[in-house]
Design the sequence.
């Protein structure tokens, strides 16, 4: 399934080292002002190669709106967004054609499909997230006039929580030919109460699915999250007075439906699996091999997950907003 | 959305204090032996009132197979399962008609729908999980011959990790008119490699959505989970040799697709929001009030989430198994 | 797939000679007044046994609302409707256990599933339409305050178009141990312009799928339908003046979207396949046999399709109304 | 909804006079040999400008496979197909910016969205079918090794059924500044028995929805179709002997499931609504106007619908084949 969302449906396509990556958005409301300039800044922010601590792949990643916009406004028709791949050095990956990189999708993809595009991870590459970011940028453009904003940041790297210490952890890993994990927090502000559906369509369930669907994410928590397991009910419950909730341990969601408070989510990001350090593995024939993964990789992927996580949050929220709009637009008589 | 799954689609219905709860399963393969006796034990296990530490609601919860089974085998037609409600003391909830219980879905449900069935939480009640367990039992019946088994357990309550200490924490909370949270672990063994789809249909994304969709769950992690944020890549990656993976930090999933190793999931369960302790709240007119939630409630919901989490895991896995069966059944020529 | 609709999702279940038939409606707007008395008249109208020209199966077909309604109004939760089967003479069908009735789903169901509930057609029985009618009655209850009404009628039977002649055709067929086909017309009045989605979600496409999904229907046409193939563009196009459309050759739909004029649909209904006349067939072992289908059958199914077609039309329209409500509820800023 | 299919999901995008039209196919089985050369012939066949009786829009319509194919085989990842628009004379449509063309989607699109891309019909243009044909070509490539073939033809134009008479009807209409309708027949051969699902997922329901979703189609019939309304059961039923069905009045589908016989479908195509003849209409302000539609239009659209209808049939069949593959791949133990 390469489609996300029920109402604001985003179908992504494209491989790391293919011709292009892109997304088709079906269900965007008509009349929203939209131009490439609304999307490009998000792609620029996601783009690697901006610091020595990031993958050195250098591409302009220019987005093109192929459809769905007429005279500067969305028409209600599908919005196709396309980014051509350019800095494609597939030969970097030739040695990996028959090898399973530990911690990567190589083994499982082969088990599933019986064949795979090994170049740069193919479809399972982080480059696919470019399409999600492009779609998320459109969602954010729709949400902005509603006063909804989403901001993410790295709050921990390899146990360090201060900016300088976090950077030091990344440098140390890079130097050691290794990598480090971290924690990303995303907060959505300005969401109305009432978003999300009971039972299987809970807003937190949708967020958890969206976030765990980002490569390298191994955990998701809302509000107090795992900390809630160590609290008493009297500590966890958010009291209410005439002005609203007095605290936000719930992280903005109760019974799967938004309370109107900030929606607070944290993601556990595993260390980048591509490391220079020698690891044991096998090739596609089952023969034991050793591997050192070269090429261009981030020693810590958490910072680059921030814009992706923000955009996935935007996609979840606009989907819930549209679902809720159905009730507002339906007048019971 | 009250439907779960793409291939093994379960639609649940029913309120805590309505006439019945139930589920319709659409997409169960034909020819599977199935009787009420395959489902009842799971409902019995989920049922409250089995210990002084649990809600005292006493119901036989007899399941009836209304359709989809003929001469002891599934036919491929929808399987409707029905459980009538019996021990319904709606009057327990009369005082709650106009009050928002802190930590509950009362406030958000009212914000969403403009009206609600206040009796026992209505549709947002834990009693709805009965339908999920019934569906999960059918899934487990289908999966058993494949050698797939799923087992869950409480591994932590209010910080305690030993059985006696955990029970002590619950007793203490009960005595104090309070409640405690905990952590549940679920492990699926025997799953083949190749389950799950890349990008938005990742197996871990589906699991995260399914688990976060259980009331009171505030966090989900796979394998090392949040611990992965504190590891190096060389510690996190699972090396492979000719016999397979040498460790399982990934928790059985790489790139969103199963590796064939155990799938390991942990859930953070918040303390039951219904507590006798006085809390501040408002009523539906916005007037400030105090509330002490009486009725029959578990001081710790974690143990009762175990069968629900197992069953949700079963539903995710059978759905992925059926999706994968499509590839096996399609022969490229 | 036993689910119909995207927004007003109806999942039906139950076999002709099983315990019950029913439907779960997910997505009904909250706050709609609803009681069993709103649904029962539609079931009574669909019920056989009301005239000597219809199947003699006699059942009260009492509907029970199991969930989703509280204090006389829908809550937004799934509405489960249940009808117990009563007049079940499965022994009538014992001789058919191993025989494929010509014109029936016996052969194809066996080919698909490898086994089947042969009693009264099992899931492929016309009795399944009872669940659709129950769901349609709820849809009609929601649509009525909007001024939308739907009426169907038989306009032709075995070539005859006058009531008396039509009845004579049915009597003649009954006497001959044979059956006759007919044409049903359904008209929806009061629908606003703008319903339906371009491309694959066209309103006429949804209607065509819904109508062709009724057993025994072999053709569907909108407005001029097949007659349009014999017209000039200047005859087919509906001119517009300041008061609106001057004609309705389009049958109320242009480009897949409603115009606001009456939506006019006609269905071709094949003769009931169950006939007493001797037919050639084979049994499940492939041995050639002769068959005369006894039991209780309508010599012409067209009249009984009328309420089913009306209800399917209601389900299509409420689904499109809810989809459109999304746009109304979403305010572009 | 711009997505077609459950298993072989095709999402189309693009407007008549925008930058491009295209489709993303999600769910194509891996390992299928595929190149642009497999798709291009179908686009060439669909392309206008091949005869004086067709629209004179001249474009090479070169398809580009952007993703999902590696080393000549599909990988299981989404296949994005793109065709850039070239011969775009939007100025032809400037006079239509504020006018509703009778018989077109202009009025309804405006009613639905409040704004529209008026150039060449925008998204509701026949040019969108290019994307369907591209997707259908991929489906046909997958189906061919299974021995499944699909062929369509025009069988009637404005009442004429002989090739020469049909052509004469088109020429007469062209000369008169008018247009004519017709009937298209599509036959799928080689389909196995067992395709399609009971109740709402019937194969004929899917076909009817797919065909009625083609612009200008006003009717769909299967097998005897509307003729069945004039038959006796003893005439309509297809007897069976040891070698199979002795006739095919059913058109290859019983109870919504394929019988293994040819699947026979006919479509009623209305006359092209764009005609030079003066028609009455209104503009977007409601003022009465007269209109003569110039530009490049086919006087009869039926011939150009043939490849589109074949491709939609292919999409329905591959979707059902993949659904059925799920059962074959699932081994009940």
Sequence:
């Amino acid at each position: 399934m390469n489609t996300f969302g029920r109402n604001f449906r985003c179908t992504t396509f494209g491989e790391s080292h293919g011709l292009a990556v892109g997304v088709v958005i079906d269900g965007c409301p008509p009349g929203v002002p939209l131009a490439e300039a609304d999307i490009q800044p998000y792609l620029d922010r996601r783009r690697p190669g901006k610091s020595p601590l990031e993958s050195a792949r250098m591409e302009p990643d220019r987005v093109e709106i192929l459809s769905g916009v007429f005279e500067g406004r969305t028409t209600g028709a599908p919005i196709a967004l396309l980014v051509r791949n350019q800095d494609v050095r597939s030969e970097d990956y030739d040695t990996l054609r028959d090898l399973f990189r530990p911690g990567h999708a190589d083994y499982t993809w082969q088990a599933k499909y019986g064949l795979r595009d090994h170049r740069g991870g193919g479809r399972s590459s982080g480059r696919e997230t470019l399409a999600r970011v492009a779609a998320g940028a459109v969602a954010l453009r729709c949400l902005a006039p509603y006063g909804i904003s989403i901001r993410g940041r790295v709050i921990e790297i390899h146990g360090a929580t201060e900016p300088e210490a976090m950077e030091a952890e990344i440098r140390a890993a890079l130097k050691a030919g290794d990598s480090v994990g971290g924690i990303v927090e995303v907060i959505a502000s300005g969401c109305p109460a009432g978003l999300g559906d009971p039972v299987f369509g809970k807003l937190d369930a949708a967020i958890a699915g969206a976030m765990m669907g980002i490569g390298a994410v191994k955990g998701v928590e809302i509000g107090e999250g795992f900390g809630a397991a160590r609290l008493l009910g009297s500590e966890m419950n958010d009291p209410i007075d005439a002005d609203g909730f007095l605290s936000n341990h719930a992280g903005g969601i109760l019974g799967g439906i938004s309370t109107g408070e900030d929606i607070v989510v944290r993601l556990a990001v595993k260390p980048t699996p591509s490391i220079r350090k020698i690891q044991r593995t096998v090739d596609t024939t089952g023969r034991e091999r050793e591997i050192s993964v070269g090429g261009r990789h981030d020693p810590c992927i958490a910072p680059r997950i921030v814009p992706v996580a923000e955009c996935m949050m935007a996609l979840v929220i606009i989907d819930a907003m549209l679902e809720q709009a159905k009730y507002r637009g339906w007048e019971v008589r």
Chain A touches chain B through 109 residues (CB under 8 Å). DSSP finds seven helices and 17 strands in chain A. Chain A has a mean pLDDT of 93.
